[in-house]
Design goal:
Elements lengths: L2 H6 L3 H30 L1 H8 L4 H8 L3 H14 L3 E3 L4 E3 L2 H7 L10 H11 L1 H10 L11 H22 L6 H7 L2 E5 L5 H9 L4 E6 L2 H14 L5 E5 L10 E7 L8 H11 E12 L11 H20 L11 H10 L4 E7 L3 E7 L1
Parallel strand pairs: 3-4, 3-6, 4-5, 6-7
Antiparallel strand pairs: 1-2, 7-9, 8-9
Helix pairs in contact: 2-5, 2-7, 3-4, 4-5, 7-9, 9-11
The chain binds S-adenosylmethionine.
The site of S-adenosylmethionine (SAM) has 21 residues, from helix 9 and helix 11.
Amino acid sequence: MSSTGAADQINQEKLEAFLGKVVTDFGAALSSSLVYIGQKLGLYKALAEAGATTPAELAGRTGTQERYVREWLINQAASGYVEYDAAEGKFSLSPEQRAALADEESPAFVGGGFYLVKAMTNAVPRIEESFRKGGGILWGEHDPDLFVGVERFFRPGYRTHLVNDWIPALTGIAEKLKAGGLVADVGCGHGASTVIMAQAYPASRFRGFDNHGPSIEHARRAAEEAGVAGRVTFEVSAAGEIPGGPYDLVCFFDCLHDMGDPAGAARRAAEVLAEGGSALIVEPMAGDTVEENINIIGRTFSAASTLCCTSNSLALGGPALGAVATEEALREVVIGAGFKEFRRATQTPFNRVFEARR
Ligand SMILES: C[S@@+](CC[C@H](N)C(=O)[O-])C[C@H]1O[C@@H](n2cnc3c(N)ncnc32)[C@H](O)[C@@H]1O
């Protein structure tokens, strides 16, 4: 192909707009490493506590080096992640920036997302190799910040929606759990969802399962700290082999699409469900066609899927449903596993919430 031919077709205005987008993305990618550092070192929390601050004051409060903090603050102000008062030479957080970056109790807190970006970026050399040779990376082989990031990123959404919206959207399950039921949380990771449910339903008992041992150890500590360990157990188990039951509710939070054998996991869920029980399957928001994923959510989830979710399933020779699995693909797995009903019970901008019944 002649390069002149292609160049002739370039619209200069469109090229400049596109390059502007690319530079924005360069900045975003590099800055996200600095947001991670700010989360780790408590720079946002210190800024939130201090109010308007100079770099030297912020460094003093956090026991960090002023020269680095000064550079970090310039980047953060240019990113729109902190405010800058040029007259005073001071930096601060707006209420919105504080909620999103410094307040772990806020539903808007997104600090955990930067642990995910950092951990997934570390996976790049192996993912590049997997593009060439196939296979992938097992969940447990990732940078441990992935496990911390998932918990910190998903917990605000679970705290906001799980008990208030998602469980009430299921058929009769909220009533069962209020009265005292038994719940399995499959692929529970650090157990954020399990602990939140246990706190909300004091008459019920909860069993969290995950095949990643270090996550289960973390979850046990979290249950102790939350004071619910008497009614909550965490065990290492593959999803297709979870013990016990019958369960009134079997949950899969953001994990079915990752699995090497999602059909086996769904089959086991159908086997251990009590009469009248439900499976709650929470999956990332995604469209049913490629074009429905061409937006900022689809951009984010398809990237995470390439670097982590699809890769875990492929490492196990699985079907690689991926984070942007269509509703139809999920339905096929669930109905094929022996469930009779599969419906979207509710949703948020980031999650699809499905109920399956036998
Ligand atoms: C994205 S994380 C979600 C963790 C947790 N549900 C949450 O929402 O915070 C996916 C989890 O699924 C677990 N997982 C993947 N395949 C599994 C399998 N076959 N059996 C049990 N757990 C599995 C991983 O170890 C990981 O903890």
